[in-house]
Design brief:
The chain has one domain: Rossmann fold, CATH 3.40.50.150. It is about 35% helix and about 20% strand. The strands form two sheets. Strands 5-4-3-6-7-9-8 form a seven-stranded mixed sheet. The relative contact order is 0.15.
Length: about 200
């Protein structure tokens, strides 16, 4: 496959999202399996994936699952439309510092949400997936899940099997999260399925 055909963009109900084309079925099955009570998304982007999450939750009987999505960019018309839906909130708050340290400076904005009763799913898809994952992983409860996008387990695998074939970006790998996974008792979930759409998924046990 030619590089130019791997754009990283697809559409959901005419809304742009930066996901592999096979994301829908894999995420739908996963949401049915874990039945989250709360979803925290770092990086709303254009809003297409957030809208997919909200609609899919509603369709599978999880309309009470609350979504909080953070982004630092101005709201677009899709964000405004989504924000008018029930049990979803898009927040234009910068919870990480804007310097090179990318430190979680406003943990109070997400800690209470994560600690809500029931299973929380965290999706790291902002400006620095490695630091988002490593810092938020320390806040989740046993039984919760944390994921990060643009993941391939190692660079050799990316070069040999993903580049110009499946996905042309890697922003997080196993070496980046090894220490926090060991310290916080995070184990892999549905690895083969999520590898195919360049997401890592871990559960705290």
């Amino acid at each position: 496959m030619e590089n130019k055909k791997i754009t990283g963009f697809t559409l959901y109900k005419s809304c742009t999202l930066q996901q592999h084309n096979n994301y829908s079925n894999i995420f739908t099955d996963f949401l049915k399996e874990i039945k989250p009570s709360s979803i925290l998304e770092i990086g709303t982007g254009a809003g297409g994936f957030t809208l997919f999450l909200r609609n899919t939750l509603n369709e599978i009987g999880l309309e009470n699952c609350k979504i909080q999505s953070f982004d630092i960019n101005p709201m677009n018309h899709i964000h405004i439309e989504i924000n008018n839906m029930e049990n979803i909130e898009i927040l234009k708050d910068n919870i990480f510092s804007s310097d090179n340290n990318y430190t979680l400076i406003n943990p109070h904005l997400i800690e209470g949400f994560i600690k809500n009763q029931g299973t929380t799913l965290v999706l790291c898809d902002g400006g620095n997936k490695v630091k988002e994952f490593n810092q938020i992983a320390k806040l989740i409860k046993p039984g919760d899940y944390i994921m990060a996008h643009d993941y391939v387990d190692n660079i050799e695998n990316f070069t040999d099997n993903y580049l110009d074939k499946i996905w042309n970006w890697v922003e997080i790998s196993d070496a980046d999260i090894k220490d926090v996974c060991e310290k916080e008792n995070l184990v892999s979930v549905n690895k083969n399925a999520f590898d195919s759409i360049v997401w890592v998924c871990k559960q705290k046990i």
